[in-house]
Structure formats: structure tokens, C-alpha cells
Amino acid sequence: RYVRQLQRLQLLFSPTAADARGAREFVEEAAQDFARQHPDVVLYVSPHSGRGPAPVLRAEYLNGTVRDELIASKTSEEIVQLATKLANQSGLDIIRIRKPFHTDNPSIQGQWHPLTNKPSILTVQGPRLQPQ
Amino acid sequence: MVVLSAARWVRSRLSDRFWRVQEVLKYARHFRGRKNRCYKLAVRSVRRAFVRSTKARREKKRSLRALWITRIEAASLEHGLKYPAFISNLLKSQVELNRKVLADLAIYEPKTFKSLAALAQRRRQEGFLAALGDGKEPEGIFSRIVHHH
């Protein structure tokens, strides 16, 4: 069963700044629809009054990663698209994956070591024969 | 940043020089010497590093294949076969494993590799018999070709 990796979305913006206009429109119009469409994500709207930092959409995931996305000078539709993109992501870091496969047990028959194909006389120590 | 109004063209100064410099220096942090700190030297080094990394993508395929071939050669010599004999006889027995997989088998599944070497050796003997024996003995078992349609 699918478990959404996004825990909470925090919308930090100031109610008076000019670049937070899209954020304000998002809160007025589309935030409720978004919250209803994604019932397992908690949406926090926290306006900080006065001249604060740039408006940001903070996404926290189940594995602890926190991802901040700037929403300054973005329209409401763009913010909705951004929020859905964050909701569909998992919290893994977005870096180049070196290999698309991984195993914890790569060897079933036992990994090769220099004595695998040698006669077992070299490794096995039997009971020491006494000189008669 | 530069205000370009025709009547009042005022030359304004750059305010985010720090971040423009950091964009380049962040790729040079693990270099040796002054090129990891000084922008002028770092620009040249970073550009060369990027060019080399693009070109190296074509070389990587070649060097990895050479590595696999070395490993398969070493493993088949342990079982008494040389690399050209091993590969050609495996292909003749319709075992189409690529060198990457063969190298991984040689490392992590030595018994499987041993059986593959034995198969190649058997096919080699049958090939010799077919070439030198001249038709009196029946055809070898492992020389039979399976047609998949």
C-alpha cells in the first residue's frame, strides 16, 4: 500500500511583501483544494508579519529531509504545481545515483579469495602426523 | 544589474559577485593548491575538469571493458583456459553472457565460473575432434545448436 513520504508542508510568507502575492492567492484559493486532495499531508500556513525573509515552501519528509523551495514572485498555479511535485517525491537526496542496483548479499557461493581454486591441502590443517 | 535607460545611463556596480564566484569555486573545492581558493586559477581548472569529465565518459566504457577482460582472463587461467579460447568456446556453445556478467560471476560465484570454464573446455575438445577426427565419430553433444524461433 502506498505511503506518502511527504509529512508536512509549511508555507512561510509575509502578508505584506510584494513577492508573496502568489503565496497569498494560493492560500486564499487553492490551499484548501490541495489539502483535500492530499489528506495525508499536513499543510501549515504561517504568515510572519513585517519584513521577513523571502516566502518559502518548506517540505518535510518521513526520513527527516527538509526541502525549502522559494515561491517569491510565483503565480498561484505554479505554487500548486510545485506543491504536487513535492508531494510526489520521496525525501531521498537528489544526487546522481551511482548504480541502479544494490544488494546486501552479492555472493551466494562465497566470494572469490586467492585460495578458492587451490587444492585444499594448502588450507586444511589435519591432525599433525607424529614422526614414527 | 546594469540600468540601461537611454537618457540616464548610470553605471551600477555588481552586488552579487560573491555568489557568482561561489558558483565556480564550489566545483573546485577538492582540488589541490591555490586553484581551490583563487577564482582566477579556479575558473581555468574547473573548465578543464568539466571538459575532461565529458570526454572521459567515452573512455569509461573502454576502460571498464578492459578491466572485465583482465579479470575474466585471470579467472579462466586459474581453470587452465586462455581468454580467447574461453570466450570463443562459450559463444560457440550459445552461452551469450557479456563480459561484465562474466567478471561478476568470476568474483562472486566462483563455482558457476568453474562450470562455465569446464563447458568451454568440453566444447573446445569437441571442436578439435570435429576438425581432426573427420566424420567417423558422431557430433559432439555440446556442439549442437538450438534454434529459437
TrEMBL record, chain A:
<keyword id="KW-0496">Mitochondrion</keyword>
<dbReference type="Pfam" id="PF05047">
    <property type="entry name" value="L51_S25_CI-B8"/>
</dbReference>
<dbReference type="GO" id="GO:0032543">
    <property type="term" value="P:mitochondrial translation"/>
</dbReference>
<comment type="similarity">
    <text>Belongs to the mitochondrion-specific ribosomal protein mL43 family.</text>
</comment>
<keyword id="KW-0689">Ribosomal protein</keyword>
<protein>
    <recommendedName>
        <fullName>Large ribosomal subunit protein mL43</fullName>
    </recommendedName>
</protein>
<feature type="region of interest" description="Disordered">
    <location>
        <begin position="104"/>
        <end position="132"/>
    </location>
</feature>
<dbReference type="InterPro" id="IPR036249">
    <property type="entry name" value="Thioredoxin-like_sf"/>
</dbReference>
<feature type="domain" description="Ribosomal protein/NADH dehydrogenase">
    <location>
        <begin position="15"/>
        <end position="90"/>
    </location>
</feature>
<dbReference type="InterPro" id="IPR039927">
    <property type="entry name" value="Ribosomal_mL43"/>
</dbReference>
<dbReference type="GO" id="GO:0003735">
    <property type="term" value="F:structural constituent of ribosome"/>
</dbReference>
<dbReference type="InterPro" id="IPR007741">
    <property type="entry name" value="Ribosomal_mL43/mS25/NADH_DH"/>
</dbReference>
<keyword id="KW-0687">Ribonucleoprotein</keyword>
<dbReference type="GO" id="GO:0005762">
    <property type="term" value="C:mitochondrial large ribosomal subunit"/>
</dbReference>
From TrEMBL, chain B:
<dbReference type="InterPro" id="IPR005813">
    <property type="entry name" value="Ribosomal_bL20"/>
</dbReference>
<dbReference type="InterPro" id="IPR035566">
    <property type="entry name" value="Ribosomal_protein_bL20_C"/>
</dbReference>
<comment type="similarity">
    <text>Belongs to the bacterial ribosomal protein bL20 family.</text>
</comment>
<keyword id="KW-0689">Ribosomal protein</keyword>
<dbReference type="GO" id="GO:0003735">
    <property type="term" value="F:structural constituent of ribosome"/>
</dbReference>
<keyword id="KW-0687">Ribonucleoprotein</keyword>
<dbReference type="GO" id="GO:0019843">
    <property type="term" value="F:rRNA binding"/>
</dbReference>
<dbReference type="Pfam" id="PF00453">
    <property type="entry name" value="Ribosomal_L20"/>
</dbReference>
<protein>
    <recommendedName>
        <fullName>Large ribosomal subunit protein bL20m</fullName>
    </recommendedName>
</protein>
<dbReference type="GO" id="GO:1990904">
    <property type="term" value="C:ribonucleoprotein complex"/>
</dbReference>
<dbReference type="GO" id="GO:0005840">
    <property type="term" value="C:ribosome"/>
</dbReference>
<dbReference type="GO" id="GO:0006412">
    <property type="term" value="P:translation"/>
</dbReference>
